[in-house]
């Protein structure tokens, strides 16, 4: 199987055994082979005999390597996502007869199901990343608000003025506002911020 979720993203591959996995991984680097072609053309190329001249000419690296592993033919089925292909399911065969049509239909059903699972996994990962980003932003905001409250209380300033003082101090000392705020919340004394200026 070849899986490329983004047009310019890194290609992800999986194989039924270590040798096939290595073959598919190398294929991604060669930018050739049935999976690559199926993914790029968004079409079903049909069964290809691997030890024939057309396959060797089209896939000079892939075809001889697949034959050396004992495979004689290959079919690539697109992993379809709406109107585009996000990869391909590559079925290698060591038999002389072509895969029957019902087997190809089952393979395409598996490819379609795999595409749905991969899309859901990608959506879940994106959602987790957004949630994590929002949680970090909220934690930062909470610390800054706490620091503003401490400054306002300690040096008797309105909250807006405390905010300005915090930002001015961070700028003048080339520090991030969050870092200065964290120091204040953790109890470090900062003259002019947590202690009135003499």
Describe this structure in words.
- With 198 residues, the protein is of the alpha+beta class.
- It has 2 domains: 2-99, no CATH class; 131-185, Winged helix-like DNA-binding domain superfamily/Winged helix DNA-binding domain (Arc Repressor Mutant, subunit A, Orthogonal Bundle), CATH 1.10.10.
- 56% of the residues lie in helices and 13% in strands.
- The protein is built from 7 helices and 5 strands, in the order E-E-H-H-E-H-H-E-E-H-H-H.
- It has helices at residues 18-30, 34-41, 53-58, 62-68, 101-154, 159-172, 177-185, and strands at 2-3, 12-13, 48-49, 73-81, 84-93.
- The protein has a 5-stranded antiparallel β-sheet with strand order 2-1-5-4-3.
- Helix 5 crosses helix 6, helix 5 packs across helix 7 (177-185) and helix 6 (159-172) crosses helix 7 (177-185).
- The N and C termini lie far apart (71 Å).
- The mean pLDDT is 84.
């Amino acid at each position: 199987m070849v899986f490329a979720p983004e047009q310019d993203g890194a290609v992800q591959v999986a194989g039924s055994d270590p040798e096939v996995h290595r073959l598919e991984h190398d294929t991604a680097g060669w930018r050739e082979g049935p999976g690559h072609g199926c993914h790029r053309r968004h079409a079903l190329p049909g069964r290809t005999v691997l030890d024939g001249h057309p396959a060797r000419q089209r896939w000079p690296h892939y075809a001889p390597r697949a034959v050396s592993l004992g495979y004689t033919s290959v079919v690539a089925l697109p992993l379809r996502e709406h109107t585009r292909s996000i990869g391909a399911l590559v079925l290698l065969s060591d038999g002389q007869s072509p895969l029957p049509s019902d087997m190809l239909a089952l393979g395409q059903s598996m490819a379609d199901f795999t595409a749905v699972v991969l899309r859901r996994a990608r959506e879940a990962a994106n959602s987790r990343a957004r949630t994590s980003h929002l949680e970090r932003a909220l934690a930062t905001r909470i610390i800054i608000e706490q620091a503003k409250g401490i400054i306002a209380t300690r040096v008797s300033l309105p909250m807006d003025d405390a905010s300005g003082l915090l930002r001015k101090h961070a700028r003048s000392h080339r520090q991030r506002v969050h870092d200065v705020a964290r120091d204040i919340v953790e109890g470090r004394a900062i003259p002019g911020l947590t202690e009135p200026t003499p």
